[in-house]
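Person: Show me a sequence?

Helper:
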Amino acid sequence: MTPGHEAWVRDWVASHQGQGRLRLYAQELSALAPGLPDTRLLARARLALRRYDGCVIPVAPTSLSWVRTILANAGAEPRTPLVAMVFDITAPAILDLLALGAADFMRAPACTDELRARLSRLCRGGPSMTPQMAPGGAAGAPPCTVREPVPGYGARASARRTATRARLEAALAALHAQDATLAEEPFRQAKSRVVAGFEREYLRRALSRHGGNVAQAARASSKHRRAFWALMRKHRIDASPYREPR
């Protein structure tokens, strides 16, 4: 389970058990992949997750960094589609999760009928927010069994595929439609917020692509290393979570 969501997960799963064909299971990821380091949990749990047709993982601002880190360090290409259930997450952050390997996302609280429809589409190999994922599932497993809320995968920068532009734009448009309350925000304030969000996400993606190597990330971004460091300090971004464990 995502740290900090354990109680919510158990209550949510219990309240939706026995409803139609959607079957939910709450499971500690550490139970499937015991041992250290923590950032390699998904890589170690990949085979155990293949018995499920889909995984649902809650993501909130407090857990976003953890989810992003384990997705970036998951290693091998995922075999189980993951649906991120997001709580107050901004559009750029959701796009980052999609680029890191999430097959789809839903706003919490989720409608179980909609969740079942999305999982059914993924099980059939239908289009998702990211490139094609091969759904898992052991012999005899019920259709669209949901593995709640264990992040089911991710791939390293070398193995990652970028989500199609059309689907990313569709996701962004859907999220912006929910932010209509900010329409009266002053221009200067709105611009500052958008620029800050862009800088944070750009830095995180650059660090993720280059395994936390600041010099390489700065060079690939066509920025001086000192300027890159200054932006990292401005947004309080640490490179260590993006480095591969030794």
